[in-house]
Amino acid sequence: MKRIGYARVSTVDQKLNLQRDALKAAGCDLILVDQVSGTRAKRPGLDKALAKLGPEVVLVVWRLDRLGRSLSHLVEVLKLIQAKGAGFISLTEAIDTTSAGGRLVFHMMAALAEFERALIVERTQAGLVAAKSRGVRLGRPRKLTGKQVKHGRALLDGGETGHAVAQTLGVSRATLYRALAAG
Fold this sequence. Notes:
By secondary structure, the protein is of the alpha/beta class. The chain is 51% helix and 14% strand. The protein has seven helices and five strands. It has a five-stranded mixed beta sheet with strand order 2-1-3-4-5, with helices on both faces. Strand 3, helix 3 and strand 4 (87-90) form a beta-alpha-beta unit. Helix 3 packs across helix 4 and helix 6 (162-169) packs across helix 7.
């Protein structure tokens, strides 16, 4: 099987030597690198490595954190690798998806990532419910205060046009009429 190595450091000050040496020792024919923060979505070296994957090709990294920004991103990348029929090896964590045990570890990671996402959604929803029960108004702040709405209504009742009143209040006509209808 052909092995493609991927190495990443976050800053220009950091060195790739340790990762390159480990990838060469693991039998990588080609090593692609990025010198960019792991939080960046755009990583040209990783994109090139992923583009070269296919059956009988294995992507090798020194550590899992060199590949993914988060657990969910890591699972996404691993699913892409799997969809291309390629394998994946992480040297430090001893994960090898070309074996049954490695595939098991991958599926466990995917399940944990899904569980993590579900927990985040539950916590977010619980927080929104709690905020609403405390009377917190959610969403964007209103453009017009109650006093401004009353003033706008008085101007309209006095014969001003909707366009003129909206300009006076510094909002669009749609915003003015929506505020008048709401209250």
